[in-house]
Amino acid sequence: IADSSTYWLPGDSMISLRNLSSVFIYRPSNDSIVWLKNGPFYGQHDPDIINEHQLSIFNNSYVLPNKREKLPENRDVLDIMTGTASAQCMVYDFEKREVEPIFTELMDSLRIITATEGLFHWLPNGDLFVEQENAGKIYVLSPTEGLIYQHSFVVEGRPGLAHLTNWYRIYETLD
Q1: Residue 72: what pLDDT?
Q2: Calpha distance 66→81 (Å, rounded)
Q3: For strand 128-132 and strand 32-38, is the pairing parallel, antiparallel, or unpaired?
Q4: Residues in a beta bridge with 102
Q5: 117-144 in b/e burial notation, b at 16+ Cβ within 10 A?
Q6: 59: Cβ–Cβ under 8 A, 6 or more apart, which residues?
Q7: Which candidate, 50, 73, 83, 148, has a CA 20 to 30 Å from the CA of 123?
């Protein structure tokens, strides 16, 4: 982390423990965890600072099922365990001490599903760039206009196959 706020300092690190459904801020200067959040995300990663009191977390909405356990009957839990639940953009607000999913209906309608990988990046105008890595798709979502861009990297002549995007990056300026 480069900038400071009431909740983090320069030199702190945001760390996501995917298989433990946990995100925390680690302060190496005194070898301490200064903030920890367990869920309500599953298989999450890519925590990003939005502003001085909010961060976003890419929720894959997926956990590795224990092959010895019977799958649950609850449809929401079953979708999370089988990798058929839509990914989510989760926003944690330090002031409210709450996690809120955003773009949920849009991501559900687009069937943005990423059992592994995937990412998002906030654009300067407030739009959200989303990568659905496992399906080779990218999107730009607007809080006011909804879907404003979508592209699939399909393999020509091979129906159902797509090139993996492998964690695209947006470069806003070229200096």
Answers
A1: 47
A2: 9
A3: unpaired
A4: 89
A5: bbbbbbeeeebbbbbbbbbbbbbbbbee
A6: 41, 42, 43, 44, 87, 88, 89, 90, 101
A7: 83
